[in-house]
Task: structure prediction
Amino acid sequence: MFKLPELPYDYSALEPHIDTKTMEIHHSKHHAGYVENLNKALSKYEDLQKLAIEELLKNSNDLPEDIRQTVINNAGGHANHSLFWEILSPKGGGKPTGELAKAIESQFGSFEKFKEEFSTKATTLFGSGWVFLNVCKDKSLEIKRHSFQNSPLLHGKTPIFGLDVWEHAYYLKYQNKRSEYVDAFWNIVNWDKVLQNYEVLT
Ligand code: MN
Result:
């Protein structure tokens, strides 16, 4: 059985960038819903219940046909949101440090250019989805968009940072102004956590 992780801060902690009501619904209804639907889908497959969420997604081709798409959607939703809560912090913002800062600079030219590319991809993504910073098999970084809850793990890449651009992530406060939500997001990024995620993989 998969479990909804607790947030590492209060629902109100990310105000004014992400409002309390949005955080509460996003975590206790949307994320909880993915966990619930995932457990339901796996209910008759006991050995799959024992796998780590990453294993389910990395080996999605081996999943039984009757639950494959449901697992991709809901294990993806669970993994994506679990990452998202962790890379946010009321004490966030600023810039990446350490080896991650170096890698971003050498691959994207500068942190500002990285931020611009990531923000553009987030604001122009059509429909519901995510923008991720992934570590590829050769350890290089890539900014990649995915529709729905599709996880980079499905493609053998590991996300270390991501932004949820489903309307449920921002609509109560920002309505149609997704770009304002994307701008606000940079104020609450927990770069220490993103660096940790990077260091584990490199
Ligand atoms: Mn979401």
